[in-house]
Amino acid sequence: MLQLLLEEPSAEVALRIIIPRMIPHAEEHVNYELRVFSGKDDLLRKLPSRLRGYSSWARNFDVRILTLVDRDDDNCVSLKERINRIAVDAGLKLHQSGSAGFGGCFKARIACEEIEAWFLGDPAAIRTAYPKVAKSFEHRAGFRDVDAIRGGTWERLEKLLQDAGYFSNGLRKLELARTLAPLLSLENNSSASFNHFCNALKEMFPEDDST
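^ DUF4276 family protein, sequence as received from the core. Prediction below:
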């Protein structure tokens, strides 16, 4: 049983497209769920009680929990430590790369700064979906490290697309996720947080329907 805890609907939209591409047997499973909260504050507020519930399930089932939150203005390391403490206090064990066995296993991943960094990390996907976007924008100073963008990653992406004549009335995040997720390269993305999440997902995903 794999539970993915997400803070926003656009992450859910993207992952419902990405997971079957990344995990060939994903659609054969009925034991993974994406649970969406009403933002980061709501997820962090409800996380202790939800993880305690998963911990009780783990007495009888193979439970694996992967949570994804945006860093926003938080320190990435401190935020991850805070979430990990909540998991340990709930009675879950932290999954380490390469470790065997689950039974109440938790892993946190932080999207630095926001999930839109994953989209900016694949300029080819952006230009495929939105051909009028400036060529080689990724070489500009403000886009060279997509995980280090400050002041709002989605605002930066919105301006990039609006400058090319798209989303004149404002960026529609769900539409953007539905459009770009099928185009993202799973092997060639400059966002380190995207690559870390993909690796964590592969490690945590159940291998067969008996898990």
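The radius of gyration is 18 Å.
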